[in-house]
Amino acid sequence: MIGLLRSKLAVDHEWQGRLHETQVTFMNMMSHLATPSDSPKPNSSPLPLDEAEVCERWIDELEEASGPSEYFLLPGGTEISALCHVIRTQVRRGERTLASLMRKEPVHPSIPAYVNRLSDLFFALARAEMAGSGVKEERWRSFVYKKRKLH
Is residue 38 part of a domain? Predict the structure, then answer.
């Protein structure tokens, strides 16, 4: 899906290089996870230990442009934004599968850290696309839930 996203962007779009790096990182991670635990891994560390921080820095850059979000959003707005939300949900689904795998097999700690930040990155990319396109976000619910007072 990241490849589909890249195909929808202009060749010289500012995200192209970073999304390419994300695809390469993802392929390295999947190769590592697909190798049985009793077999030699493709490399000793599937991801650079700071890969989650790379996502975090990009998120910070995107939030500087579009502002921080305090709401869950209804996906959509533009095709690119909607596609970023699809990728975000796929990454979250993969994160749940990864959690199941981690109960059975050892997984390098850089992998769950990266996957967690990657889904947040695609949320930030969706928001940045909306802001850059001048399309208003459709808010669903605040991130902060207010507690009801008991009578």
Answer: no
